[in-house]
UniProtKB/TrEMBL annotation:
Its main location: membrane. It comes from Oceanospirillum multiglobuliferum. Its EC number is 7.4.2.9. It comes from the Bacteria. One of its GO terms (molecular function) is ATP binding. Residues 4-254 form the ABC transporter domain. GO terms for cellular component: plasma membrane. It catalyses: a dipeptide(out) + ATP + H2O = a dipeptide(in) + ADP + phosphate + H(+). This is ABC-type dipeptide transporter. One of its GO terms (biological process) is peptide transport. Keywords: ATP-binding, Cell membrane, Membrane, Nucleotide-binding, Transport. It holds the Pfam family oligo_HPY.
Amino acid sequence: MALLEVKNLEVSFGLRSGEVKALRNISFNLDRGERLGLVGESGAGKSVLGFSILNLISRPGRISAGEIWFDGQNLANLSAEGIRAIRGNRISMIFQDPMMTLNPVLTIGQQMVECLQAHRKISFDAAKTIAVQKLKQVYIPSPETRFDQYPHELSGGMRQRIVIAIALLLDPDIIIADEPTTALDVTIQAEIMELMVELCERNNVALILITHDLGVVSQATQKTIVMYAGRIIEQGPTKEIINDAQHPYTQGLMNALPQMAIPGQRLNQIRGAMPPLQRIPTGCAFNPRCDYAEEACKRELPTFTRSGNCQVACHMVAAMRKAEQTQEGV
C-alpha cells in the first residue's frame, strides 16, 4: 500500500469573475522512502499541489474534489485539529525562502524547541539534545553555538540547512520541498540537494521535490510528474522521462536546458506563455504553444496513454502508439 495516495484532486479559487480551477484531476502515489519530482513552469500548479497535501490552501481557495490518503486518513476531509497533528510532524514542508520561514526575533534553538514541544511532551533539555543532533545531521559546524544564534547571523546556505534540520526534527514520513534552492548560488544548490537526498535515503523519508529545474530532478528523484495549467501531462520514472520525453511540453522543457543549446547561440525556449486559469484553452491546454497540434488537440482533452513505464496525456502520442500496435498486429 502506498504511503500517500492522491485521487482525482481538484483545487478551486473563488474569484469575482467566477470560480477557477487551479488543479484538475490530479492522481499519483508515493511510496515510503521514494523521491518524486514535480516539474513545470510558474503557474503550472506545483506549489498549490504541495500546499493542498497539507491542507494549507488559503481562502478563497479550497479543495473542491478528490481525496488525499495518508496512513488510512483522508487529509482533504480532516479537521483542523487532525491536520495539525500531521502537519510538521509526519509530513514536513520546506519553503523557498528560509528567511520567510524562520522567525527573525527568535533564536534557532527557540524555534526548534518550540516545534518539538508543540508535538511531543518533552523537556527543554531533551528538546535541545534532539535539536543539536539534527543540526549535526545537516553538517552545521559548531551546532551548540548556532543553537543560540538568530537567523540573520547565518549565511543563506546555513539557514537552508537549518530549515532542513527543522523539517527532520520529528522524524517525518514525507518532506515536501518547494523550490528549496531558489535563493542560493549554484554551488550551494548542489550541496543542499545532495544533503537532502542523503538524509532521505538514510532515514527512509519520502520526498516531494517541487522545482522548474529538470537538471535537479534528474539527479535527485526516482519518479517525475510534469504539470501544465493545473493538470498532470506526463508521469513516470525520472530516467525514462529525461532520456525519452514523450509529451511535446516535456520535450520543450528538456530542450530549454542551457546544455542543450549550441554555444554562442540563443537558448531554446517554448514559444508563448502559460495560459491564465480563467482562459485555459479547450482541448489540450498546451495546443496554442505546440508545434504538433492538430484539430483533435483543440477540441478534445487528451486521456493518458501508456508509453513504456510512463503515462502521457497527448493525442499525438496516443495516435503513434495506436499505429505501432496496428503494425505489430499485422
